[in-house]
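General statements about sequence and structure are easier to judge against a single worked case. For one protein, we set the task of working out the structure tokens from the amino acid sequence alone. This step matters because it turns folding into a mapping between discrete strings. The amino acid sequence and the backbone structure tokens for this protein are reproduced below.
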Amino acid sequence: MAESDTIFKRNLSALRLRNSTFADRLETTEPVELNWVTSKKGPLSAQLGDGSGSASWLASRFDPGAEAKRLVEKVDRDKAGCVVVMGFGLGHHVSSLVEQLGPRTVLVVFEPDVGLLRAVFERVDHSATLANGMVFIFDREDDRAGLTSRLERLGGVMTQGTQIVVHPASRSRHKDAFGAFSKTFAEALAYFRTTVATALVNSARTCRNLVNNLGHYVAGATVAELQGVAKGYAAVCVAAGPSLVRNVDLLRDPAVRSKLVIVTAQTALRPLLDRGIRPDFVTALDYSPICTRFYEDLPDLPDVTLVVEPKAHPRILEVYPGPVRVLSSDFNDVLIGDLKREIPPIRSGTTVAHLSFYLAQYLGCDPILLLGQDLGFSDGLYYAPGTAVHKVWSSELSQFNSVEMMEWQRIVRMRGHLTRTEDIHGRPMFTDEQMVTYLRQFERDFADAEQRVIDTTEGGQAKANTERMALAEAVGQIETGAVPELPRASRELDPERLSKVRGLLEQRLRDLTELRKVSHNTIALLEQMQGCLDNQPRLLKIFEKLQKNDRRVHGPLYETFSAVNAMNTIGVFHRQAADRRISQITDDRQARQAGQLKRDVENIEWMLQACDEAESIFSEALERVTCLRPALPAAAA
């Protein structure tokens, strides 16, 4: 018993480093009854219950190690960025996978029987496996939000290939549980794929927008002034879901309006203004210039502040008829060097609706109400009536083509991605893969939120980790007085800082010329090394030249190099895959070196392409900053 207690404490301590919540749950769980035996080859095996029936054996009675090896041999290591193991059993196959896969492959283990894990962890030392930062264990209690939250940082690796290993002895015991987890995991993986695909496709466009917004980023107003200014007051985050029209008119009541900070997604701005509701903030982050349609024909809005991610299309910042505040950007901060200002960060949003929620948290608001956040096509509609897109469609309307018909056409265009579900009233409703992805992120955010989150949408999909009630009821519970006046942002740009941005971009263009020269020289040196892998003295001499180039890149060229490297998203993705393959070469030093050199040459070739893109971006941004000068008020110019 003393030895059992020691083993369990060792396993529990290792598990607690990675997942303290699960460790606490495991510690209070009663172990199942296992009949332990020593196999003929030495490792422990065990049988469930009273020992009757061969199906209840959790591992081979003869050679558990060989059995585990046969199971993991089915995994193609080169194609597996992630391996999902269904069933922990005694863990022999899990330990074998950790040894075989190397340090750059994600291992997800699902075991629905926590009592079994408790019994196994009392007898088998898995502490090294449990302490591994690439190993994640889940059970029935882990929901979609928890799964996404724990795995999100490794989403890029997981999208490089996922393979499934099913523990044979667990298959019949947990068929339904395995099916449910498979669905949950597939949804999380779809979210990661969407995120990675968006980053890969939009990386150049994102960087172009970030650099083109340098004028506002360096010389305009920021969100720094807003942190905590509405602490303890309620906020309502307004989105443009179809159900918005059911209760949004309540916000017209001055008594209700005075108690709320209203944060609206840009898609819902027009419906609010048309009802005489002036929000405090409107959020924007979209890459495309088409989103400027949300701001066409708007009146002057001196009291409605646009809070915008710097990655948004620059035309949005230029056409908005009111004050603008920008969020922080790590990319821009590195690029601008000494021009950087301290801007406490707000979490980056996948959509304007997510950004609205993060802004409400940043303001210190509590509770946070959700309105018009359907995350599905309530009543067969895509948008709330009165959104800007309906104005775009107006020229196509006739007695044979109504707004409702065009809404339905917009939905069925994605029929391959549609899913049938139920709304909060139990009525049938369609949603799609994208909306499901957004829902997963919201549920993760709500689970992590310190604030009380109330879903007052009164339609659409149910959202985990929220309270659901009517808007009138939620407003009736707000006991604070009127929200104090919020800080107003200046609509002018600082001319001195704007001038410095121009000089900085000119310097970055000169740096690119030098960076190309160093990169071409580095490729030539790496190719020389590829030809003399068996000549260590020669390799060391070439390596000294490489170090000189490295000091140049990470010295005076560092800020420009970092910007170019951020644009090299596809190259980074390929490098991660190459690193994973190289990490699995453990018994051939020369083959490992050859793989590393090949990887480095390919990475620099990708970076040279990014240099071409950077030159185009910096030149365009320089022209834009120059054009911003005449737009300044005469007194400031």
Q: What stands out?
A: The CA atoms of residues 526 and 597 lie 6 Å apart. Confidence is low (pLDDT under 50) at residues 630-637. The first strand starts at residue 34 and ends at 38.
